[in-house]
Specification:
The structure is a single chain. This protein is α/β, with parallel strands linked by helices and 163 residues long. It is built from four helices and ten strands; from the N terminus they run βαβαβαββαβββββ. It has a single domain, classed as Purple Acid Phosphatase, chain A, domain 2, CATH 3.60.21.10. The strands form two sheets. Strands 3-2-1-9-10 form a five-stranded mixed beta sheet, covered by helices on one side. Strands 4-5-6-8-7 form a five-stranded mixed beta sheet, with no helix packed on it. Its EC number is 3.1.4.-. It comes from Mycobacterium dioxanotrophicus. InterPro entries: Calcineurin-like_PHP_lpxH, Metallo-depent_PP-like, Phosphodiesterase_MJ0936/Vps29.
């Protein structure tokens, strides 16, 4: 199963649309995971229509319509692996310990908010992934997104793509 992980798209405030390589990745993915800050419901509509399966949550920049349509926390099991998708996880310092305690029944936590890519594993085995932002690099050298594969309860091939 091929995954596309994105967050902090901020369409249309930071970009008019997602970059072409991200749309290509949507077409190749079995599951698109979006960790919040969509900004406009039209992107949710377009991704929902185009993605085979879309799993997403709302972020702090998402208004009432997106919060009505999306959960604050999305949970899904894919190929035997338990995923949780949230927007915010707080400060980077101590994140692994806090998230391991907050999500003891999760295998992979996908989050956003900072626009800073993140890939670590806690002592308890929880994998933390932040794909950065494909449209707003902030203090990063480039805009980013992630892809990964899941098979038989194992996450593999986690790749950070720079735009």
């Amino acid at each position: 199963m091929r995954l596309l992980l994105i967050a902090d798209t901020h369409v249309p405030k930071r970009a008019r649309d997602l970059p072409v390589p991200v749309w290509d990745a949507v077409d190749q993915a079995d599951v698109v995971v979006h960790a919040g800050d969509w900004v406009d419901p039209s992107l949710l509509d377009t991704l929902s229509a185009r993605a085979r399966l879309l799993v997403g949550c709302w972020g702090n920049n998402d208004g009432a319509e997106l919060r009505r349509r999306l959960p604050e926390r999305a949970d899904v099991t894919l190929e035997g692996l338990r995923f949780t998708v949230v927007h915010e996880t707080g400060a980077a310092t101590g994140r692994e310990a806090r998230m391991a305690k907050a999500y003891p029944d999760t295998d992979v936590l996908v989050f956003g908010h900072s626009h800073i890519p993140w890939d670590t594993t806690t002592k308890t085995g929880l994998r933390l992934l932040n794909p950065g932002s494909p449209t707003d690099r902030r203090r990063q050298p480039s805009c980013t997104y992630m892809t990964a594969d899941v098979a038989g309860g194992v996450l593999s091939g986690v790749t950070l793509h720079e735009l």
